[in-house]
Amino acid sequence: MPTLIMGLVAVALLYFALQFVKSADPKALARVVRTGGGVLALAAAAFIGIRGQIAVAIPLGIFGAGLLGWAPMSASSIGRWGSRRSSGQKSRVQSAFLDMVLDHDSGELTGRIIAGAHAGRSLDEFDMPQLAALTTSFDSESAALLESYMDRRFPGWRQHAQRDGAGRQSSRAAATGKMSREEAYEILGVQPGASANEISRAHRSLMKKLHPDQGGSTYLAARVNEAKDTLLRTHRS
């Protein structure tokens, strides 16, 4: 009987864990995984150290501390090893209603509203239904940017919207008007006067971040391609 009860408890815990993973914010889930991994690594290091295996315990302890942000070997720095890009490099895309920023190092997309009733507020303040409602009051370019943000923060939100009968056409019109060189520099995150090689490298790096598997979108990828073409056209002329 005790074995049966423990089995039922294990199944229940597994079920609730799966539900949490499905509904959790990806950023919050990543923090939970890093914290849990750090605690487990430190506990394992302490246990191994007590048993006298110091050569194994020390690197394991450093790794666990890094996951918890207590050492230079943190989870955020691990992902940047070998990168030739400077820390803090960002790309900016603006529309009539939104100012969006993509961090090159982390791939995080953030944004704030710059016009309308909610001007000045961060998109992180809104939940999924509220963001979906905002798209109805935005122009097509702003709505496309907002949907790109939602794709990263709420993977699968489009399926939920369609199931609720509130789905919208995902294809959006490209930005109206010819892109300026200043806007192209901001989108690629390169300095004015950048060489063709620098422009191409920035383009390749951003396209990797904007891959659908990374929460990217067709609209943002199109804007990055347009920025590259705009700047390379200047070099060819």
Describe the overall structure:
The chain is mainly alpha-helical and 237 residues long. The protein folds into 2 domains: 2-78, no CATH class; 90-236, DnaJ domain (Helix Hairpins). The protein has helices at residues 2-23, 26-50, 54-67, 75-78, 128-134, 140-153, 157-163, 181-188, 196-209, 218-236; strands at residues 90-94, 98-103, 109-113. A 3-stranded antiparallel sheet has the order 1-2-3.
Top keywords for this entry?
57% helix, mainly alpha, three-stranded antiparallel sheet, 3 strands, 2 domains, Helix Hairpins, 237 residues, flat
Question: How is the biggest beta sheet arranged?
Answer: 3 strands, antiparallel
Order of helices and strands: HHHHEEEHHHHHH
Roughly how much helix do the residues carry, as a percent range? 55-70%
Task: Give the overall average pLDDT.
Answer: 74
User: How much strand content do the residues show?
Assistant: 5-15%
Q: From the alpha-carbon coordinates, what is the Rg to the nearest angstrom? A: 22 Å
Give unreliable regions as ranges.
71-87, 166-176
Shape: flat
CATH topology of the largest domain: Helix Hairpins
Report the CATH architecture of the largest domain.
Answer: Orthogonal Bundle
How far apart are the termini?
81 Å
Question: What is the count of distinct domains?
Answer: 2
Q: What would CATH call the class of the largest domain?
A: Mainly Alpha
The count of DSSP E runs of length 2 or more, i.e. the number of strands, is 3
Provide a count of the helices: 10
- Structure classification: mainly alpha
